[in-house]
Amino acid sequence: MYSHVSGTGMYLPERALTNNELAKIVNTSDEWIRTRTGIEVRHIAAENEATSHLAEKAAYSALEASGLGPKDIDMVVVGTCTPDLILPNVACLLQERMGMTGIAFSVEAACSGFIYALTIADQFIRLGQAKCALVVGAETMSRLLDWGDRETCVLFGDGAGAVILEAAENPGILFSDLGADGKHRDLLCADAGVSSLKVGETAKLHMKGNEVFKVAVRTLEAMVDKVLLENGLEQGQIDWFVPHQANVRIIEATAKRLGLPMERVILTIKEHGNTSAASIPMALDTAVRDGRIKRGDLLLMEAFGAGFTWGSCLLRY
Ligand code: ACO
């Protein structure tokens, strides 16, 4: 048994925050943000919108696209590093609100959270332990930002993306590869938690941007080489590259390594910013709905994030 994506969905909060608006809060400029990152606008969740609310909207949209309802779902996996609560996990909150049953848990792998979640769901389906999974990447990164730190607050946004992953005779997901290396933990972290007794302190995200940049490019290039080699693919043979949207310069470097022109790369960073685990399913849904990605196309999704964690997934859509 294999798994395939039968529907996609996304949700972007209404409030758009432009670079020019940010330049009134911190010492930055539209020109700096655009040229260094590719971002023009990001969206910010309303005060009464938690991560599970964004996830719920993306989930309903994916269910509608697949022609299924909540009762058909027997597994919910949510990639997020900005959960509503310490417990229950966001997947259980979704289950309760949408009337779903079965397995439900969240995966904490920062920007790689969606690829981790998708890979786990694929394995459950291959083993026959689930038939129809709702896989979500959802984040309220704005809640983790220090709005006085221009090196991080200009980069991130909120949103959610979802896919329905169903058991199928033919693959869908052809190959996935996950990795992590904890030794770089201090380059990108939000230093608060429960067992470190820092609960109650306000968690804020810190990043040594240009050091992260270098490791990200190196790791993503190695990952791309491995995907091509292990699947007998030549450069240029992937139809669509759907990368995590952290920085357009990182994406360009990886696309070059794949031998793909930028016309075959799905770029949403300009309108979404970096939405961490939500960025890949949001980019996927954008390109499915605007008709670029069609049934039968070969897609490569890849991500890199805090931890460091990384992952790739080769998918016949
Ligand atoms: N506006 C204006 N100037 C700024 C800003 C800003 N918002 N931020 C930094 N600068 C300044 C710096 O202070 C520095 O000034 P100096 O030269 O006087 O010291 C200068 O701009 C250059 O700073 P760098 O950090 O070297 O800029 P860089 O070109 O590396 O771009 C960026 C920074 C965009 C953060 C980039 O390094 C990057 O994208 N890094 C990778 C991010 C990533 O992939 N993260 C992983 C996923 S996220 C997750 O897992 C949650």
Adjacency order of strands in the biggest sheet: 1-7-6-4-5
Which blocks of ≥5 consecutive residues have pLDDT under 50?
Answer: none
Distance from N terminus to C terminus (CA atoms, Å) equals 16 Å
SSE-based structural type = alpha/beta
> Sheet bearing the most strands, described?
5 strands, mixed
Global morphology: globular
Strand content: 25-35%
Rg, alpha carbons: 18 Å
Bound molecules: acetyl coenzyme *A
Query: What's the count of strands?
Result: 13
Key words describing this protein structure:
five-stranded mixed sheet, alpha/beta, binds acetyl coenzyme *A, 317 residues, globular, four-stranded mixed sheet
Descriptive report:
By secondary structure, this protein is an alpha/beta fold. The chain has helices at 19-22, 30-37, 51-66, 90-98, 113-126, 150-153, 209-230, 248-258, 269-272, 279-289, and strands spanning 2-11, 15-18, 41-44, 75-79, 103-107, 132-140, 158-168, 173-180, 188-190, 205-207, 240-243, 298-305, 309-316. It is globular, with a radius of gyration of 18 Å. The chain starts with a strand and ends with a strand. The structure holds acetyl coenzyme *A.
Provide a compact summary of the structure.
The protein has 317 residues and is of the alpha/beta class. 32% of the residues lie in helices and 26% in strands. α3 (51-66) packs across α4.
